[in-house]
Amino acid sequence: MKVLVVGSGGREHALCWKLAQSPKVDEILCTPGNGGTAQVGENIPVPDDDIPAIVSLAKERRVDLVVAGPELPLVLGLENALSKEGIPCFGPNAYAANLEGSKAFSKNVMHESGVPTAPFRVFDEYENARNFVREKGAPLVVKADGLAAGKGVVVAQTVEEAEEALHDMMVKKSFASAGDRVVVEETLTGEEASFLAFCDGEHYALLPSSQDHKAVYEGDTGPNTGGMGAYSPAPILPEEKYAETAESAIAPILKHLAAKGEPFKGILYAGLMFDGDTPNVLEYNVRFGDPECQPLLMRLDTDIVDVMLACIEGRLDQIEVKVKPETAICVVMAAKGYPGSYPKGMEINGIDEADKLENVKVFHAGTKLENGKILSSGGRILGVTALGKDLAEAKKRAYEAVDKISFENSYYRRDIGDKGLKRLA
Ligand code: AMP
Ligand code: GLY
User: Which of 127, 252, 302, 342 could form a disulfide with 335 if both were Cys (CB 3.0 to 4.6 A apart)?
Assistant: First the structure.
């Protein structure tokens, strides 16, 4: 069969790599793709938010399955548009994708379905939001309702900071219409973990826990990024807790959306914060995390096409989703300066040497293939991913691979996995 993957990051290279392992797949297309996906399949320069162009391409090339990497095309209705043409799409429809596309929608669904989450209020008027913030006092979290490329959340330590965030979103319109509505919620504290499940509208199959590293510098300091590394499993959420965590964070959402006649199909990603042992849901994503996807797919031990089709066809209860018992870790190599401004076009050396190491896979993110050379084209450039018998071994292996790769102005965190190692000690 022919599969089209939408997106261009490390997650999408990992998806292409995993799809290519399926004996059912004989051709992979990627829109727009990167230097890594170009080596697994064919890149086609269609942006990931151009729904009509993606649908036309899928029809023209007789694609059998479309896999959405990022959230934007799903929120824009990619699944709805494809299903009208009879083309299966892995990912939720636009209504269900609002779990990520609208924080107010998401919080209301959590509230109505009894999912533990921070108490919140939704505001459409700046004055009302400001009065509430003044009345409540800091700390508070201010969130732009719509998609804001990961920048729409401000954890405000003072009332002034909260007011500034509201002004930025609702008056200055820094995030355009994404900030017309805001959520103001109580601040929670604790360690975060990601918990993802394949969903078919009714049933779910859990993936093991994972943990992202959002801050750019070691020790979780500095500004937030898309994610500087990830590993799975996350010791903060051990296997014996999966079932009860899914009962509180995954099952109620599926039930709620099914009752609305809008069943959730695809990956449901719960972003959790543990206050002691109790997880609260901070947010839902409607897709694989990037970089969590890379270690998770290194561990997935079932044909991903079978799982995706079972999600789409509502028969996830009939298949077993197997996962390797090992630990996987992904270290992101970025360009110095990211998430601010950074140089591009650096030639990358050593990827093949790193890839040759046992149980190592280098996933491309911001790269392009030009005249046989791999050049950097983004802030997060590579996701060097390794599998080991435990976290210590996986970490050692991943950094051995990182040491084989060189490019000018390279930056990466040396402490990916350390929080987990501390917890295991
Ligand atoms: P979200 O997009 O809602 O996950 O928010 C992005 C990040 O902001 C999270 O990963 C947390 O680090 C932080 N955050 C969000 N909501 C809260 C909250 N209620 N309390 C503390 N931190 C939060
Ligand atoms: N790694 C966090 C995310 O993909 O949203």
Answer: 342
Q: Give 125: exposed, middle or buried? Use CB within 10 Å, 0-12, 13-18, 19+.
A: exposed
Global model pTM greater than 0.85: yes
335 Cα to the center of ligand 2, angstroms? 19
Q: Does the structural domain 2-94 have CATH classification 3.40.50.20?
A: yes
**Euclidean distance between CA atoms 310 and 319, whole angstroms:** 8
For the chain, the domains span 2-94, 119-186, 191-424
| Ligand 1, residues at Cβ distance < 6 Å | 118, 141, 143, 153, 155, 185, 187-188, 192, 271, 282-283
CATH number belonging to domain 119-186: 3.30.1490.20
Q: What is the spatial distance between Cα 196 and Cα 180, in angstroms, rounded to a whole number? A: 29
Rounded to the nearest whole angstrom, what is the distance from the C-alpha of residue 340 to the centroid of ligand 1?
Answer: 20
CA terminus-to-terminus distance, the chain = 46
Is the domain spanning 191-424 CATH 3.40.50.150? The answer is: no
